[in-house]
Amino acid sequence: MTLLPFQRPLGRTGLMVSPIGLGTVKLGRNQGLKHPQPFELPSRKEAEYLLDCAHDLGINFIDTAAAYGSSEARLGELLQGRQQDWIVCTKAGEEFEAGQSRFDFTPEHMRASVERSLRRLRRDYLDLVLIHSDGNDEDLLHRYGTVQALAELKQEGLIRACGVSSKTLDGGLLLAQYADALMVACNPHERDQIPVIEACQSLGTGVLIKKALASGHLCTDAPEDTDPVQTSLNFLFAQPGVDSVVIGTLNPTHLRDNVAKALVALESKP
Ligand SMILES: NC(=O)c1ccc[n+]([C@@H]2O[C@H](COP(=O)([O-])OP(=O)(O)OC[C@H]3O[C@@H](n4cnc5c(N)ncnc54)[C@H](OP(=O)(O)O)[C@@H]3O)[C@@H](O)[C@H]2O)c1
Known about the structure:
The protein has helices at residues 25-28, 44-57, 71-78, 107-121, 139-142, 146-155, 169-175, 194-203, 217-220, 228-237, 252-267, and strands at residues 8-9, 16-17, 20-23, 61-63, 87-92, 94-97, 100-103, 126-132, 159-165, 181-185, 206-210, 244-248.
């Protein structure tokens, strides 16, 4: 089995994260997603095995969200007693109910969402909380005061680090100045967030990558003689400033493949 040999600082958060993180939307939700194929939620045994594999491979970073169905609650149960092995990032601001998303970025909702995540994840504090943006990134600072609300929860000790899973170029550039970490979508076919990654690097803001495989479409749409996972990881790890690439998978073989290819990319980094 290939082991990720090292963890890296996530910006200036003080958190040390593996270069590959495990995305867990598929652990708790199978509706309203952009993945190429429908899928069943994993059984407890399958989920346990996936997390054991991730741990054995050297992954210590897990990404979830309040809006990922049962993902937070399942992680709370599965990681009980071994929480010190994992850095868990969750998100607040999006709710997914009866197959529909709705957003609430008020400070009151942020507090209620964080308190619920603490209960679901069975933690005394959350390592990292990101605002789950709906695409109106600037409003999170200027209209709702959501960024400020999370900073207050951090001051109170409920959160160690906070930031935004942002969507736009201008919003990302603005929020990079206030966040401990941003999560941005990036892959060889979707490069518009590169200036945000560069801004984060110069500010010391942590960078997490989502949709490294375009939610799986890079793999299903790729010609047979190409290796889209290697191509994407080579591209992403060549960007200075990328701290961890969060890839979603329920498949232990894919997880091993992603880690092995991350190692190749990191070793051949210019
Ligand atoms: N707004 C937000 O904050 C936001 C949005 C999107 C995603 N995210 C986070 O980022 C994570 C990843 O995003 P994502 O799931 O949309 O996209 P992704 O990581 O680009 O792709 C995940 C898809 O790729 C497949 N896959 C993974 N490794 C593979 C491999 N080696 N070979 C072939 N297929 C492979 C997975 O299927 P298998 O299960 O079959 O491996 C899964 O369907 C999410 O889980 C979530 O934590 C956040």
